[in-house]
C-alpha cells in the first residue's frame, strides 16, 4: 500500500512539474505548450477600465455613428434609442440640470415611468466596452474601433451630452466623462462586493429566510383581453408610447394564437375583427435537408431571434412555416431584403447570406421547418 502511495505522489509531482514546464514554454518537452504571443494577449485583453486604461486609440464622429446606428443598431434599439417592446430604452429621462450636477434627479422620482441606460450610466468606459464586446447582438465584436467610437458618440448626442458635430476620441473621453448626467451617481454603500474595502458597508442589502412550514401558495396572476374588446378603445400599444417606449399589445390585430390558422378580415369601424377559418396547406418536403438548414440558422445567428416552436424576438420557425407554406421564393426575398410589420413592431434587418444558403433556409421553412 505504501509503495502504491509513493508511486501516486511521484506521479503527481511529475505531472505538476510537466505542467509548470509547459507553461514556461515547454523547454524540456518540445511541442507541449508555449507562451502566449503578444498578439494573442492583445486579442484577449480587450476590457476598458473606468480610468480608460485599455481604451484603444481612435475616434468616431456623431455623423458616422448615425450611419452605423441605422444600419446595425436601430432594428433593436429604435432610430432614436427609444427601443421597442422587447428592449428597454437607451436614451431619455436626463435633463440639462443633470449635466451640471452629475446626478440624474429622475432616478429617485417614483412617478417617472422608466430607467434608461443614459440615466444610469456613471462611467463612459462601460458604454464603450459593452458596445465593443457585445454589439451588434447577432455579430458581437464585429464593429471596428472607429465604429465603436462613432456609435458611442451618437448615443451621447441623442442624450444631449455632446453636440451633433462632435467627434469622440481617446483624447477627449475624460472631458466627456465629466459631462455624463449620472457621473456622480455611483455608490459603494452596499455589500454586493467587499463593502468595507471599497468604502461601503458590510451589511447585506437584502435579508430574509426561506419559508419551511405552512408556506403560502404562490399566487398565479393572469390577464385576458376578450376578442370583442381588443380594439374598443383604440391601439393600446400606441397609447402607452405617449409616456415612453412602454410595452403593450397592438390591439388593432387579433392575438397571434388566435390568428395562427385563420384568415383575418377587419371591417371598417367594427369593434372586433371577424375571423374566417382557413384550410391548412401542406408543402412538399422533397429535396429539403432539414439538418443542413438548421445548421445554417445556427451559423448565421438566426437563432438569436428565432426558436423552433416558440416566439423569441421574432416568430418561431413553426409559425413562419404555417403562415407561408410552399412560398420558398417569397421567404428567400424576405431573408435577403429584411422585413418589418409582418410579425409585430420589431423589424428584421436585411441578411447578407449567399443565394444558396438563403434558398436552403427558405425552402426548409416553406416545407414545414421539419427536422
Q: Could you explain the architecture of this structure?
A:
The chain has 371 residues and is mostly helical. The protein has 15 helices and four strands. It has helices at 2-23, 38-44, 62-72, 74-77, 96-101, 117-120, 124-134, 145-158, 173-177, 236-240, 256-259, 290-299, 317-323, 328-337, 355-366; strands spanning 59-61, 167-169, 262-265, 274-277. The strands form two sheets. Strands 1-2 form a two-stranded antiparallel ribbon. A hairpin with an 8-residue loop joins strand 3 and strand 4 (274-277). The protein is globular, with a radius of gyration of 28 Å. The relative contact order is 0.09. Residues 1-26 and 257-285 have low confidence and may be disordered.
Helix-strand layout with pairing:
Blueprint: H1 2-23, H2 38-44, E1 59-61, H3 62-72, H4 74-77, H5 96-101, H6 117-120, H7 124-134, H8 145-158, E2 167-169, H9 173-177, H10 236-240, H11 256-259, E3 262-265, E4 274-277, H12 290-299, H13 317-323, H14 328-337, H15 355-366
Antiparallel strand pairs: 1-2, 3-4
Helix pairs in contact: 3-8, 7-8, 12-15, 14-15
Number of strands: 4
What composes the largest sheet?
2 strands, antiparallel
Derived structural class: mainly alpha
- Mean pLDDT reading: 78
Specify Rg, calculated over alpha carbons: 28 Å
Tell me which oligomeric state these chains represent. Answer: single chain
H/E element string?
Answer: HHEHHHHHHEHHHEEHHHH
The number of helices is: 15
Helix residue percentage: 25-40%
Overall morphology: globular
Strand order of the largest sheet: 1-2
Strand proportion: under 5%
Contiguous runs where pLDDT drops below 50 for at least 5 residues: 1-26, 257-285
Q: Tell me the span between the first and last alpha carbons.
A: 56 Å
Amino acid at each position: 500500500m505504501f509503495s502504491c502511495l509513493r508511486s501516486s505522489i511521484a506521479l503527481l509531482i511529475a505531472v505538476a512539474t510537466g505542467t509548470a514546464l509547459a507553461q514556461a514554454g515547454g523547454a524540456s518537452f518540445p511541442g507541449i505548450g508555449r507562451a502566449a504571443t503578444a498578439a494573442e494577449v492583445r486579442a484577449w485583453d480587450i476590457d476598458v477600465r473606468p480610468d480608460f486604461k485599455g481604451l484603444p486609440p481612435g475616434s468616431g464622429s456623431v455623423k458616422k455613428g448615425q450611419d452605423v446606428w441605422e444600419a446595425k443598431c436601430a432594428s433593436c434599439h429604435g432610430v432614436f434609442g427609444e427601443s421597442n417592446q422587447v428592449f428597454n430604452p437607451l436614451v431619455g429621462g436626463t435633463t440639462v440640470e443633470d449635466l451640471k450636477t452629475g446626478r440624474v434627479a429622475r432616478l429617485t422620482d417614483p412617478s417617472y415611468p422608466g430607467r434608461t441606460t443614459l440615466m444610469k450610466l456613471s462611467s463612459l468606459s462601460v458604454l464603450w466596452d459593452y458596445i465593443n464586446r457585445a454589439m451588434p447582438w447577432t455579430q458581437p465584436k464585429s464593429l471596428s474601433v472607429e465604429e465603436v467610437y462613432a456609435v458611442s458618440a451618437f448615443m451621447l448626442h441623442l442624450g444631449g451630452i455632446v453636440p451633433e458635430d462632435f467627434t469622440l476620441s481617446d483624447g477627449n473621453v475624460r472631458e466627456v466623462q465629466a459631462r455624463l448626467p449620472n457621473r456622480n451617481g455611483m455608490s459603494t454603500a452596499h455589500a454586493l462586493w467587499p463593502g468595507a474595502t471599497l468604502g461601503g458597508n458590510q451589511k447585506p442589502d437584502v435579508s430574509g429566510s426561506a419559508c419551511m412550514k405552512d408556506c403560502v401558495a404562490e399566487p398565479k396572476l393572469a390577464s385576458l383581453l376578450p376578442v370583442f374588446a381588443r380594439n374598443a378603445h383604440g391601439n393600446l400599444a400606441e397609447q402607452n408610447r405617449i409616456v415612453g417606449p412602454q410595452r403593450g399589445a397592438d390591439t388593432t390585430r387579433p392575438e397571434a394564437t388566435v390568428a395562427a390558422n385563420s384568415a383575418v378580415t377587419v371591417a371598417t369601424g367594427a369593434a372586433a375583427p371577424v375571423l374566417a377559418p382557413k384550410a391548412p396547406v401542406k408543402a412538399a418536403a422533397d429535396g429539403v435537408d432539414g439538418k443542413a438548414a438548421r445548421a445554417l440558422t445556427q451559423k448565421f445567428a438566426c437563432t438569436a431571434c428565432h426558436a423552433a416552436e416558440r416566439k423569441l424576438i421574432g416568430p418561431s420557425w413553426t409559425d413562419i412555416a404555417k403562415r407561408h407554406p410552399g412560398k420558398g421564393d417569397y421567404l428567400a426575398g424576405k431573408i435577403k431584403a429584411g422585413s418589418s410589420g409582418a410579425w409585430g413592431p420589431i423589424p428584421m434587418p436585411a441578411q447578407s447570406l449567399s443565394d444558396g444558403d438563403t434558398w436552403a433556409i427558405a425552402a426548409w421553412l416553406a416545407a414545414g421547418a421539419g427536422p
